[in-house]
Amino acid sequence: MMDHAVLGQVALGYCPMVDRQRVVTGTRLTVFPERPDAAPDPDALLAAIHEVWPTAEAGAKPTLSLNLAGEAMLRRMLQANPGAQTMVEVPAFMAADTANTAGLQALRATGATLVIKGRPLAPLPAALLPLFTHCIVELEEDRRTSPVAPAGIARTVTTIQAGLRNSADFEKAYQLGAAAVLGWTWDDPLPKPSGRNSVPSDIKTVMDLINGVDKEEPVPKLEAVLRRDPTLAFRLMRYLNSPAFGLAVEINSFGHALMLLGYQRLKRWLALLLASSAKGANARPVMYAAVRRGLLMEELAREHGDAETRSEMFICGVFSLLDRLLQQPMAELLPTVPVPERVAQALRGEGGPYTPFLELVQAIEDARAYDIREKSEQLLLGPAVVNRAVLSALRAARQLDG
Hints:
Structural class: alpha/beta
CATH architecture of the largest domain: Orthogonal Bundle
CATH superfamily of the largest domain: Hypothetical protein af1432
Distance between the termini: 19 Å
Helix content: 40-55%
């Protein structure tokens, strides 16, 4: 990620866009100006964002929803060119203001997809109706009615429900007609003790590999474990050969990977493989979060941490959602997977040096601007450092997803 001065002038948050099949189809990136009245240069902001979401040809399905949490910043964006990869969220009150009609028409002409955010108090000007393809309705706005297109919006507009915090609200939104939702399921109850004495065979294979790598067992013994599940072997090779890994040569075997990477670096990617072994459609958004948590915590450690610290923080981020992914309490899982004590402290909720970083990541996921700033300051991390880490992690995660 290149240095962009604008990254010192904003705070960033993100969450997934999840369709009715529980597939994560995009990311909502929320941008807060450092001051409410500030309007950072939109072209500079887009240059940084396009390192993660490159501009695409007209007609490409957008995978980024850009939520600019500042009127002055959004007004400047009307003069920019976000590209066809981008949905730009426009608050209803701004869309209804005829002074913005020409700017919105020009923005749509660049290829950007326009999304109206909230319920207009009056019908939109007729010239604007064809410009909007989606409507985002916050859950709190929508408690008494179904999430259909609000009055004053074309009935062909697709509705996206935002502000969701649990699986029940996800399901209700889909049943009432929402095409997608924006949010997390962090308010779902944590798994209760399972009493299970075994785990699925593919998960056990990955756990055995992690244990073997942790003990630095010889390659033939580790390869014998991996041969139990050819599908896992394929997935691991796919991860290791992804652009996110940045290797100059193609890895063609577990032994080759170990020779190039070493035990500790390989262990990080086995942690990612374990997190991605979760079953069921409802696990997909959690896997999306786990991958990004690991990558983001690793990036946050890059400024001051050594290789060991970065590796541990990666594992801490990925494993912080392991209980939700595998539907077993953390107390049952931790004895089966070797993690460093500093990681275990954070996962058990006992504090330790990694907990403040994990709390910062959670604030970024929830787009809580005040908490992002407060927790960044506690860690002596400037906004540019944090935002560069966010965008670097999101770019690496997209490369892995591809």
